[in-house]
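Lecture notes, unit on protein representations.

Consider one protein chain, 198 amino acids long.
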Amino acid sequence: MNEQIPTATVRVFIALAPPDDAKEELAAALRPAYAAYPLMRWNRIEDWHVTLAFLGEVPVATVPLLRPPLAVLAASGRPVRLDLRGGGHFGERVLWSGIGGDLEGLHLLASEVRAVVKECGIPFEDRPLRPHLTLARARRNDAASAVDAAAGLAGFTGRRWSAERLHLVGSNIGRGPGPIHYRDIQAWPLGARSGGEG
């Protein structure tokens, strides 16, 4: 049996991130759930994001291919006005907050991002976009926590905010019980306006 040298890979996705005050508003609404379901694997607030395209494990060498076209896309784009609202769950284990606001603009941006990925020749599973922000995962034998926590978020609507940057993100997937951590590989302002924040 021939042994192959493993290719270095990184788990990558392209996303938008809510500003700190919008995340803090949702975190305040989640306090009862944090207290009621401490055994859920809660994502760190600094890692909260809205995924536009999930590429999965890709060779590290392919990541630089994405940078120039994503920079061009971001510069020609515009900020998207969104809000965090309500809650839901995928299956019985994944808890999420929904996304409201300019969903048409969000879907358009996601389509453009995915076109860039395809043009770079990077294969990925092009699933339909279901805008959400993943908050936590329940353990395998826990069929109630995510469902109940989602019900507790049903009435939540956060303030409107502007997604100002496009993020190329890498994640370190550990085998331990702790949360997944993410880091920006690079981020670009949407609409590359002069004069700073508007």
